Amino acid sequence: MALFMLGKVQRAASLCRPHIRSCRAYRITPQLVDDLRTLVGDCNISTANAVREQHGRDESMHSCQPPDVVIWPQNVEQVSKVASLCYTHNIPIIPFGTGTGLEGGVSALKGGVCFDLTRMDKILNLNTDDFYVTVEPGVTRKTLNAYLRDSGLWFPVDPGADASLCGMVATSASGTNAVRYGTMRDNVINLEVVLPDGRVLCTAGKDRSFRKTSAGYNLTSLFVGSEGTLGIITKATLRLYGVPEATVAAVCAFPSVQAAVDSTVQILQCGIPIARIEFLDDVMINACNKYNDLGYPVLPTLFLEFHGSENGVNEQVQQAAEITQLNGGSDFTWATDQEQRNKLWTARHNAWYAALALRPGCRGYSTDVCVPISKLPQIIVETKEDLITSRLTGPIAGHVGDGNFHCIMVLDLNDKEEVRKVKEFTDRLARRALAMNGTCTGEHGIGIGKRKLLQEEIGEVGIEAMKQIKTIFDPKNIMNPGKVV
């Protein structure tokens, strides 16, 4: 949906629209650039076109819309001072992490100053006794887990891309482990946030790291999923978990989509504490086989992973195998050692690129609806039938353990008829999910393109409440304007 809600399709996402300042309520003057340079240093600011264009788009299909200036703050004090300067001059602020988002969240719709936070990359406080860690916004999930390797702990939220952890907070990311360990919303303990006027807020109180609280409004959760529209996240305290004693992964093929998804629902309804359960349809499996040089049967397939003690994992595997076989599933193909598991999950995480490789030269757009798990078989079967009837390329992959799945639409932007058909399909898919009491986005966020769908999802009163919250935190509407509400 995000591709089309812009009102028109851009022919090439790599090209930026002309940089026009005349429509803006501010002007970036040489003096203002000098003031920014004074605050962050000569080597931490750029107005070069190539740099601005790099920061004007993410992995989505939205056209590049660059900021006027890019800065690389080194600490929270610099973030605060620059935010205060922008607030004084009514200049938009756009936070930037790794640029791996899929809904245009970093597009500078009204220009402004991009805060690239990648150079704030310290792991500040690891507490192995209390199972938490505090990180700066430039730390990515892979960097954190590499740092934790000898501690016996790990951070399980895994959206696929090596995204920045504070960026994952901003979009409320999840991924393959969410069915067992939850999303970012479940794993954030405290946040340090620079508000638009430069004030610094600690959402749970300075340096606090409790596991639960009933102290007032939940400000931490308010900023999780706010997509940079309320403030700049400069520090996150995150929940950690013990590395499981035993880990086993398996692959199981099915004769039909219905059989694979029914197995998923039944495994969850039986209370099996599965760590990962991912669905790939036959088109997606075929793409992954070709892209990753694999040899899985070209059938609807589940990728599963089990965590726990040796005895516990064996019991989980036995129960899950009985359920899959009752639904016509094949025997499990096992991946027990780390190298085998990495190969299996790398193939799953490469699904986006495998799908694009089906039609070289085309572009991709990933839907991410989420429904109650009891509705999952119905919506995936109906979506698969819709894809076939519409004759569209849209392999399906999903975190079906929590009711979330993706159609990776691969299309030729020069083919107006195909663009129209994809738009109609994605609209039908989103509204099909809403009709089943689901959501238009399980993990990618609203960004630019799903604002209308958000209105349909939460209603007029909900949107008005969100706008009021936005106004309280950002009265001048300079924080990532044009996103979410």
UniProtKB/TrEMBL annotation:
MF annotations from Gene Ontology: D-lactate dehydrogenase (cytochrome) activity; D-lactate dehydrogenase (NAD+) activity; FAD binding
A cellular-component GO term for this protein: mitochondrion
Annotated signal peptide: none
Main localization (coarse): mitochondrion
EC main group: oxidoreductase
Classification via InterPro entries: FAD-bd_oxidored_4_C, FAD-bd_PCMH, FAD-bd_PCMH-like_sf, FAD-bd_PCMH_sub2, FAD-linked_Oxase-like_C, Oxid_FAD_bind_N, Vanillyl_alc_oxidase_C-sub2
Domain FAD-binding PCMH-type: 62-243
Keyword rRNA-binding: no
Known cofactor(s): FAD
Subcellular localization: Mitochondrion
Keywords: FAD, Flavoprotein, Mitochondrion, Oxidoreductase, Transit peptide
EC number(s) reported in the record: 1.1.2.4
Gene Ontology terms describing biological process: lactate catabolic process
Family: Belongs to the FAD-binding oxidoreductase/transferase type 4 family.
PANTHER family in alphabetical order: D-LACTATE DEHYDROGENASE (PTHR11748), D-LACTATE DEHYDROGENASE, MITOCHONDRIAL-RELATED (PTHR11748:SF111)
Function: Involved in D-lactate, but not L-lactate catabolic process.
Protein name: Probable D-lactate dehydrogenase, mitochondrial
Organism of origin: Engystomops pustulosus (Tungara frog)
Source lineage: Eukaryota, Metazoa, Chordata, Craniata, Vertebrata
